[in-house]
Amino acid sequence: MFDLEQMDRQTLNDPALRDEVLRLFVDQLGQALEILRDPMKGKDELQSLAHQILGTARALGARPLAEVAHGIEQEMPNADPAKFQQLLSITRAEAMALLERPRSG
């Protein structure tokens, strides 16, 4: 799900910086999932959330999530929140796995 080369470029090939950015992204995705689970949240909140996730996902090379976030942001009335939620969960799990993997070197 992640383009690791792009992620390394964005974090200046600094493993500590990469891990910090990933931790922040994991937190952001966790908050996003909580918002999506709240039935009182409306289309405006979902659109704002998609915009926030879009920038970070693009920067970290999480293209599938970025594409869905972009679609939600652009086509809100026809957006598929369930697909967005599914990709948020998958991306969050993958980011957590990247944080847990041993570092080489």
TrEMBL record:
Q: What highest taxon heads this organism's lineage?
A: Bacteria
Going by the UniProt record, its keywords in alphabetical order are:
Kinase, Phosphoprotein, Transferase, Two-component regulatory system
Give the Phosphohistidine positions (modified residues): H51
Q: Which InterPro entries match?
A: HPT_dom_sf, Sig_transdc_His_kin_Hpt_dom
Which is a Pfam family this sequence falls into?
Hpt
HPt domain: residues covered: 14-105
* Listed GO biological process terms: phosphorelay signal transduction system
The molecular function terms of the Gene Ontology recorded here are: protein kinase activity
Q: What is this protein called?
A: Histidine kinase
